[in-house]
Every structure is written in C-alpha cells, then in structure tokens.
Amino acid sequence: MKPTIIPFLTTRKLNPENQETPIHFLPQTITLKEYFFIRNHFEYPTQTQEAYFLPIVGEVIRPIIFKLEDIMRMPSKHLMLPLECSGNNRAFFHPKVYGEQWEDGAISQGLWKGVPLKDLLALIGLKRTALEVVFEAYDYGKRMDLEGDFHFARSLPIQKALHPDTLIAYELNGKPIPFKHGYPLRLIVPQWYAMASIKWVKRIVVIDHLFKGPFQEIDYNYYPYKDSDKGKTPVAQINVSSIIQQPQSYSILDNGKHVVEGIAWTGTGVIIEVEVSTDGGESWHKAILGQEQSHLYSWTFWKYDWKVSSKGEYLIMSRARDSFGNIQPFKAKWNRKGYGYNAVYTVKVKVE
C-alpha cells in the first residue's frame, strides 16, 4: 500500500499568520479545514463561546444582544462558495507592488451554514435612515500608517447586507467554524472578495452615513496610479478567473496525451466557458467543465485533453468566461495595492 502524500500550506507570514492553500494538489470541491487558506491582519483574538454575545445597534428600531444559541436556533441555510483574498496572485503584478506576496493559493472553497443577516435585521427593524451595516471583529492591533489600535472593521451597503445569501455563519463543512477561520461567528458575503467576510464578528452597527474605517477607506481600494489617489474605487466583487492546477509551470513532460486541468470561478453570474491555449494564445480550444455551468457562487473544475507530438517548450494558458460576458484579460489591471489580479493563467512546460 502506497503511503498517503499530504500537501502543506505555504507560509507567507507567521505573525500575523498568513498561509496559502496547496491549490494545485486539491481535487475536491470542498477544501478541508487543514488546507483552507489563512489571512490575518493582526494576532489572533481571545474570546470564548461561554461569553459570546452579538449586539446589533445603531439605526435600528429595537437594539438587541443575541446569544449564540439564539442565532443557532433560527432557520438556517447552506452555501457552498469560494473565499478569495483580494490580494490573491499579487506576486504576479508587473511592476511589482508592496504587500503580502500571495501567489495563487489565497483561495479555498467551503460549505457554510448560517442565518441570513436579513433575518436578524428583520427582527429588530431598520430605521429609514439606515445606509450601511458595519461589522467589527474581535481581532485588533496597530497599523504602521496610523496611531492607536484598530479593530478589523468593514461595512456593507444596506442592499448587500439584506441580500438573502449574506450569512452570519457558524459552521464550515458541517462542523463549528474552526477558531482560525472565525469561530464562533463569521460573516459570509457571496461573490465578494474575502475581506468582506469578516471573522470573529464582535458587533454589528447600522449607520446612516458612509463608514470611513482604515480597512474601508485606505485599504481594499483600487488605486490605478502609483502616486495619486485619482480613480480610487472600492474592492468588492470577485473578478472572473481561472487557474491551471496541472501541469505546473516548468514541468518536463513526455510526448503523448496529457490532461490540462484546473478551476474557474467568478463574482458575477456563473462560469459558462473555459478555454485553453497550448501555443501562447494563438489559438484557443474549449475545455470540458465539471458541469454544464458552475453552480451559483461555487467554482467549477475543468479539463482539456492535450495531445502533443513535438518536442519543445510550450506556453499553456487558460481563460474563463462568465454568464455576464466577463472574460479573463491577457493583462490584469495594475493597481498599487495589488488587488483583483485575474490575468489569463499561464504555465510554461517542456516536452522531451
């Protein structure tokens, strides 16, 4: 019996802990918790289930403090979806940008269970003045660019907060959310980059103005110019994207048949097509999707059977298209904080 080969996370930083999923070696639809990518801004917080309460205050009619067991008794729903760090693939921007040098493993897919946020807000009632919903996390620390301590906090516009699939989640893959991934409650925002899906939710505040916290106003914005804030726009929906899991770049292959395979996902609609080029983009061929089109929110696996008879070096590319007509560009839109990279995925291989 052959021994089981177990992949490892790729460490980008130890404190705060930031780890990449071994995305090229995971064929499962659901990422096991052991391989789920980890993105932190600060050290891990400290809180216990016994002391856990969730206040919802602000522009509401009946402010309330929910107990964890109150939330878990409410009608719930399951959603399978990927969480992707907005800095995923940052290392591939040219010119290079500062920040955590994520390659392609800052993405994982899980099965989340929780209560729609709109149901909690319906119980307490929103005032007409409600404009945004702010989520404050338990983790906090210092920033190099500002004085004082800051909790990680971000807001959602009221329309997104009231979307029926925006969840206050308490389970991942059928079990309580692991501590490193937000236990006991995590906000899950489908089709948005993972900075919106705040871990360790401490409190929720409904406000009548635009939230100006540093993780909203400074970070998680696209800045198209190196030395100017002109054209600044917020990071929100996930860009359509794909990766080639196998073969990996700089692999040496033999003549014959090979399977080029990977994953595709999007933040708008569903994946309807993946194309593969084995000649550096000169010609494109349709890959076979894992299903006719991806399920709403979830990624889809794809494969392309490649028969190669000539020795030499080959540039293999993949590009995905979604139901809104979005397609991966040959070059990602450069921005100085390195968010939203989604250029055509490319690997270089040699056939001997």
What class do helices, strands and sheet pairing give? mainly beta
Q: Order of strands side by side in the largest beta sheet? A: 4-3-12-7-8
Mean of all residue-level pLDDT scores: 96
CATH superfamily of the largest domain: Oxidoreductase, molybdopterin-binding domain
Order of helices and strands: EEEEHEEHEEHEEEEHEEEEEEEEEEE
In DSSP terms, counting alpha (H) and pi (I) runs of 4 or more, how many helices?
4
CATH topology of the largest domain: Sulfite Oxidase, Chain A, domain 2
Question: Strand portion, in percent?
Answer: 35-45%
Tell me which CATH architecture of the largest domain applies here. Answer: Alpha-Beta Complex
What Rg is obtained from the alpha carbons, in whole angstroms? 21 Å
Integer count of domains:
2
Tell me the total number of β-strands: 23
Helical residues, percent: under 10%
User: How would the global form be characterised?
Assistant: globular
Gap between N and C termini, in Å?
A: 31 Å
- Flag low-confidence runs: none
Q: Main β-sheet: number of strands, strand sense, barrel status?
A: 5 strands, mixed
**CATH class call of the largest domain:** Alpha Beta
InterPro entries: Ig_E-set, MoCF_OxRdtse_dimer, Mopterin_OxRdtase_euk, OxRdtase_Mopterin-bd_dom, OxRdtase_Mopterin-bd_sf
Organism: Desulfosporosinus nitroreducens
Domain Oxidoreductase molybdopterin-binding: 41-213
Pfam family, one: Mo-co_dimer
In summary, what is this structure?
The protein is mainly β.
Describe the structure.
This protein has 352 residues and is mainly beta. Helices cover 6% and strands 40% of the residues. It has 2 domains: 10-219, Sulfite Oxidase, Chain A, domain 2, CATH 3.90.420.10; 241-351, Immunoglobulin-like (Sandwich), CATH 2.60.40. The chain is built from 4 helices and 23 strands. The strands form 6 sheets. A 5-stranded mixed β-sheet has the order 4-3-12-7-8. Strands 5, 6, 9, 10 and 11 form a 5-stranded antiparallel β-sheet that branches. A 5-stranded mixed β-sheet has the order 16-23-22-18-19, with no helix packed on it. The longest helix has 8 residues, at 117-124. The mean pLDDT is 96.
